[in-house]
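Hi R.,

Here's the chain you asked about this morning:
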Amino acid sequence: VRLLIVGPLLLDSRLSDFERFGKLVRAPFVPWQKLPEIIATTDVNLSPLNLNHRFVRAKSEIKFLEAAAAGVPTIATATEGFTEAVPHGAITYCRDAADGLGNNDNLDWFGSMQRLLDGDARRELAERAYLHTLEHGTEEAQAAHVAATFERITAVPRRGRGDTQQNTGRVWVN
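And the predicted structure, written out as tokens:
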């Protein structure tokens, strides 16, 4: 088993031996258009691992959708974005990889990864993920939801949208 890290991710120095012995492999940052072919070369997608970092907490279920579309199952920490969008049967959820003190819950992650070493289990989860993505993650599947969201947004009074003299005193940070 090898861990593939794509992009400029800073890793703990304790992983250097794994990299030296070829168990941790790095690939350079790639444009998003190339990501599906890289994901498709893997057996399992891990995302996100440690919620103590803001960047990791911001990872959305798009990481699941990318892997599922490539036929790869996902093991993930049960973040709000993931659990709202992906039912348990299409993904394997684990406890946060590190608690607030930096102590890892390795057994939960290890058990999930060990189960997916079985090719049949991995293929079954990948198939459920793929079918969930086809049913819920496509433009066609999301069209009604997006239309309803835009209808709600356009129903909001136009204050503060630059077309009136009124100033709301608020700034949207996206």
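The first helix runs from residue 16 to 20.

Let me know if you need anything else.
M.
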